[in-house]
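Predict the holo structure. Ligand: zinc ion.
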Amino acid sequence: MENKGNIVLIKNGILVTPDKVFEGDLLVIGETIAKVDDSILLSDEDKAFATLIDAKGKYVLPGGIDVHTHFNLDIGVAVAQDDFYTGTVAAAMGGTTTIVDHPGFGPKGCSIFHQIDTYHEYAKENAVIDYSFHGVLQHLDEKIIADIPKLADQGITSMKAYMTYDFMFSDDMLLTVLRTTKEAGVLIAIHAEDDSKIHSLRHKFLLQGKKEAIYHAKSRPVTVESDAIKKVIALSHKANNAPVYIVHLSTKEGLLAIKKAKEAGQNIIAETCPQYLLLDESLYTLPDHQGLKYIMSPPLRTKENQNALWEGLFDQTLSVIATDHCPFDFKLKKKLAGDDFSKCPGGVAGVEARVPLIFSKGVLEQKMSLQCFARVMAENPAKIMGLYPKKGVISKGSDADIIILDPEQKVTISQKMLHENVDYTPYEGINVMGWPVLTMVRGSIIVKDSAFIGKKGYGKFIKRKKALIGADNR
Ligand SMILES: [Zn+2]
């Protein structure tokens, strides 16, 4: 008999597509989705080759796309503990099939190719799911400006600039970058926090001996984020409406500024993260230094901000839920911080629990529809980051990146059950209903019955296209 290669038929699942949610079948041939229909029958010959999966009562969804991870991130005093193997295994176990990683800074003065080359080395032979990288901006000169389109030609069609940290960009630098990226068709991602305000508040608190974890949050109040966002919106307007992607939005005030800008026709796209939707700033006051577990920037906020972010997802002011996955052991955070929050490495894990957390707390608690869920977890990130329609959608011809989620699985999230390489999870003890039981990347099943069966190095670098920035791209 002729070998037709990989054939997988998923039967009777509840398929979530952009047009409709319906009970039906999905056929995979090779690495792609060959057919999606109410009922698909195989010939006797094909049956002999095919893998049959019964998905009765389960959701068949596009694989999750997390466009904000920090694998291998070197922050000087420490390195984020998940690499492209452990991080992508954790991602796969939680139903994510593609990541777009934000590289850390390279040596001072390095070219924009430096970190991309470094990260290709980190990822190849390690990643178990598909991946790409954002570029990172850390200084600006004529060479950087000339190289931005060249980097885009290599499939790196988005770049990040920071308004705080060591290699922060001034307003003038941002304006120049925005004019350049607009012309090059590159999307600029911005970490929007007002650096001078952070420094003055932090300085004040440290002088007063206020060094507990809660002062991390108090030194980065709402306006630190919202003022920076307003500034970015004004700069984007000045740069001929250059598209901007705001990472990890945490505040209602920032959200309202973005909503207003969008209504005025500006190309401002925004992302939030599970931690800003589900955790609040009261965690910073936990005893025994446990507040350090939640040190991240921007910090956790109040419940009022959380509610606003859920509404922002519902009304599509927010387009994406990503994780900012950047884990450091609690043990290490305590050791480096001592009694001083300002010495604690920032970041939390999240890549593994993102899909089940948002399914349970979003869809099941009726804060978003199943289709909205698929949109913010997969379709929008794919469209915005130039991966669509290869990734992010259940549709004929797309990569067979699929998850099957069992809505009856009751799980209490704990560090012990997760695969992230870190000694705690910020979501410890949270109960969820529903967990991905099967993960498929390009037709290959890499998680089955909640066990990892994939191969190290299977993941491929995806050369991204220029982003589809437009009104339907939210
Ligand atoms: Zn980040």
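Residues 63-384 form a domain with the TIM Barrel fold (CATH 3.20.20.140). The pocket of zinc ion is lined by residues 68, 70, 102, 324 (CB under 6 Å).
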